[in-house]
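Appendix B. One record, verbatim.
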Amino acid sequence: MNSSSFLNMAAIGDFDPLSATIPATKVEITVSCRNLLDRDTFSKSDPICVLYTQGIGNKEWREFGRTEVIDNTLNPEFVRKFILDYFFEERQNLRFDLYDVDSKSTNLSKHDFLGQAYCTLGEIVGSLGSRLEKPLGGIPGKKCGTIIVKAEELSNCRESVMMQFCGNKLDKKDFFGKSDPFLVFYRSNEDGTFTICHKTEVVKNTLNPVWQAFKIPVRALCNGDYDRTIKIEVYDWDRDGSIFADAKDTLQQFKRRATVGSAKRYQEYIRSNHDFIGEFSTSYRELSRGQSQFNVYEVINPKKKGKKKKYLNSGTVTLLSFLVDIEVTFLDYIKGGTQINFTVAIDFTASNGNPAQPTSLHYMSPYQLNAYAMALKAVGEIIQDYDSDKMFPALGFGAKLPPDGRVSHEFALNGNPQNPYCNGIDGVMEAYYQSLKSVQLYGPTNFSPVINHVARYAASVKDGSQYFVLLIITDGVISDMAQTKESIVNASCLPMSIIIVGVGPAEFDAMVELDGDEVRISSRGRYAERDIVQFVPFRDYIDRTGNHILSMARLAKDVLAEIPDQFLSYMRTRGIKPSPAPPPYTPPGHPLQTQI
């Protein structure tokens, strides 16, 4: 088999277009309050809670929903829940406003404001037991009480299903042999469009294929809606049908484009480069009946049906087995108390340019963040929600340090090697700015010391209670490639992930090798146990209109999207189960009020 057709087969079987299009898991938000302000003269307040969310890249608050009104209480336990899509890789800002309802008007300005609280969805799920308690504010000089927000992952988001299909008497498409059939699955969206969610392998030279059983999350198959249409297309694999845009287009580049919305283009590649046999539709509810006469489907080719009066079908596809499995999820571990520890390592090599000059990648403009600061803030502000103490080690590499000018590839940005921890992401930013004033940019660009630094900590906590994420921000070509590959292979069996963000105009070809998406990284004949590195060039995410908030949101979404799966792959291969969530907390002296 020639290399291009091998690449084509691998692409059909291995490329996962779900990275952007799988709906997130859904969480149910429950709200209660304690000691609300009393705005009614002759009775207690009649509170309602209104939830607002923000869109990515803008600051506009939009009303998401309202709870019911509970009469005559300052300690409401609202029954109506808010159901939100949860994305680990996004900063999902929330605002909860409380009002005392005085009439039947839906206009909130007609009611008394009782206070508000801001948080992120990550803060709620990252809190102990996924329970966040915050003081209500918004009325100067008044104690407005507290809000308690709890998050619970919806049960149907945990389900995966194992299915197997076979075909019978499919149309013959190849001139010299039989067809080489494969299936492509699509789930329907709210707007009537379809999104690809799975492809089977190709079964060669048969009209009666039996495809391998495969497992898929129910949320990917139907977004948890059991009656939503699932469309399945049947294709004959064509040896000449490359799904790539051109010869230079790598699987990883195509994947990256897919994460910013080209799943539709991927479908078009399949359709234009492989022979369409036919299609059929079903739903999760129908499939859940299992192997039966209800799950034998006629494969219909609409063009053939329109042309030939005696056309019956292009063969049949039968469901052979259907098995539901309840999966342990990323949020189960977070709810059980697993902490995500974040470390940042910043490139201080001379190739960044003199920080005093506006052309430098480290230049501190009074008007906007530089690329290093943007990457650090974008990733750090999301991960910090999953770390209870909010203390982050911040390292630098490739600089000469005062007072003696020695070169270091693993120095503390705050100048304290015994305690490199900074208080919050703002503390890390401040330490970064201070180091630029005290160190001399030098070289070379060595990654292995900072990887080994985090690996030492990760190696000491392998019980699932902690997971480590290292963010390396760099401008250029790596100098210690062999040592870095060795460090990554060693770290691949530890509870850690590495994110590398390339800033500036350099060629980052070597980084692609570290990423391991196409070829698993190896060192001296040893392969990495799992893929733990994600590399992206920041320039791919910069918004052309100059909206830096949007640039940062795009970057964070892409680099953090793989973390939950990398986290789960470590826990599962080690057989580590999530700890049980702590019992619900009832503060002393706060008996629950009877509600009307």
